[in-house]
Amino acid sequence: MNDVKALQEERISIYHDVYDNKVPKRVPVGISLPFEFVAQYGGLNLAQAQWNPLIVEETADKLCQKVYSDTCVFSGSLRFPSFYELMKSQSFVMASNGFIQHPEVVGMMPEDYDYLIEKPYDCILERVLPRQYKALDAADPINSAISLTKSVLAYNNDFMESGMIVGKLTEKYGYYPGNLFSGGFSEAPFDFIADQLRGFKGISMDIRRIPDKLKEACEAVYPIVFKKGLPAQISNYGQVFLPLHMPTFMREKDFENLYWPTFKRMLDEYASMGIHCSIFCEDDWTRYLDYLYDLPTDTVLMFEYGDPKIIKGKLGKKHIITGLYPIVNLKTKSEKECVDEVKRYIDILAPQGKYIFGFDKQPLLLNDINLENLCAVAETVRDYAVYTNPGDTAGIEFKKEEYKVEPSRKLESKYYKTWDQYKALNPNVSEFGKDKLSNLEDAVFQYLVYLLM
Which pLDDT score is estimated for 410? Predict the structure, then answer.
């Protein structure tokens, strides 16, 4: 037990050093395997396992014994079928093989832009959600209320069970625990509109046909996605995670005009509060590296593709880099080739700190990788990526006072009530109920917006 606690203290130290702008003792190893991979490794029926998350605990434990990582090897899932099926989801559906798929769907018509711009949250709840989730039927309000209630209960239950597994394994094997309450999840305003509101085809037409309305819509949904990502607590060791979907499919002039302004402001506003972000730069962001440099210091940048030398040279003194190592290597190359390749990445990305080892993406299928190669790579990073100058300053230091942002439009809707609004409607309510009722209001908001991410 003492050895486990000592290992956990070391892991906390190396991660905190990275986030505190110091060179750590060694490069942190951040490997995580998703629910689907873990279930397959255990020979479980994936469709059945996703209805009972606790069933993967034993298999996840075995993988933790086999694969080295400084964070929990089992990462859980963002998509369980229970709450999606209860809501009759059109945007996330389970395939016959048990995988949750995201078909191309449209939740907002072009004629809805004006209402979205005028009353964004009202438009989302009245028009977008009922199109994507057929259980929300205004003509059948009682069954709609029952379905929504059951889906929230299922959502809370499944994520609680998955989180319990991660918590147990974190303590058992001394993983870096992170800070549950200082993290968040959201999307850039443009991606939020592109993903489930307009779909890829729809947003691509809107860019050319109605760019001005699209730009206004990004401003309109900004307070929604900003609030969605706000962590419960602010810490230097937590991040708001944002996967970035659309930029590599856009012309740079459209990216600069439509995507970048609200995205950059969002990260700046978080930074002004002392909140860091972790962004997944999907696909190849090489042509946008200069834009990324302008993001707040110590933004965690996970890259899928790109030249590690160019990325390190442009961004390595200001931002924390992770990703890039091709997961495909683990299947297509020998163990020696995989080890030699990871040493090359370390030699490029590790110097002067601000680097966390990670793959370009998670494996989804069990046969996506050779597990022995994964183990060899992880252990090589642990043993090879050791610094000779731990404690030295690592590049540029983050200072929240450097970020000033004009106040954005407030979230205003008849479907979201602040405490003062609630009190006005219920003048006899006790002040002792403020935190509970406000938290419930926010919990419902978080769930409804999550359904569109």
Answer: 87
